[in-house]
Design goal:
mainly alpha, Four Helix Bundle (Hemerythrin (Met), subunit A), two-stranded antiparallel ribbon, globular
Length: 176
């Protein structure tokens, strides 16, 4: 790991460890359960978070096709290949109608997006982080570090939601 990305990578790794711990022992029913009509399930949050990582790492930061499309994860999920569909702006009815994929598909996509983030981050230098670019969807120029800060925030927010739901359904187990 490059010293330049140590804080970014450290935050993501701790978050992913928390998520992995929170997922231990959760069956398909718990993964799919919504605590209320207006709330997301653990599975939906996992899918959304993985889509955000894929979008940031592949499209926003590398101008590459997303794994969602390139590796046909959308087909495994039974969804559209729209690279912008990450669940942002979905209605409660859309979330309720979302079909939870098999556990191995859900966790498989999470794993490949996590591996892709690690691969992208590991060689970055301070100069790479300081590059100023227009990184959609923000129209104003910003640094790569700023975009990565937003990605970390997204992942930690959703990791906390997953850990909370784990505790709500099954009790502690999201930390060691």
């Amino acid at each position: 790991m490059a010293a330049a990305t140590e804080a970014i990578t450290g935050a993501l790794e701790r978050n992913w460890e928390m998520i992995d711990s929170a997922l231990e022992g959760l069956d398909d029913a718990v993964l799919a359960r919504q605590p209320a009509d207006q709330c997301n399930s653990v599975a939906w949050i996992m899918w959304h978070m993985s889509r955000v990582v894929d979008t940031f790492i592949q499209t926003r930061l590398q101008s590459s096709p997303q794994l969602w499309v390139k590796d046909r994860w959308h087909r495994k999920f039974g969804m559209s290949d729209d690279p912008e569909d990450r669940g942002v702006g979905w209605t409660a009815q859309q979330v309720l109608a979302w079909v939870v994929p098999p556990r191995e598909v859900l966790l498989g996509y999470y794993e490949v997006t996590r591996a892709s983030a690690r691969e992208y981050l590991s060689p970055l230098t301070v100069a790479d982080l300081e590059k100023v670019r227009i990184i959609p969807p923000v129209a104003e120029p910003r640094t790569v570090a700023s975009a990565l800060g937003q990605l970390v925030w997204e992942c930690v927010a959703h990791g906390g939601q997953i850990a909370y739901l784990r505790g709500f359904y099954r009790g502690m187990g999201w930390h060691r």
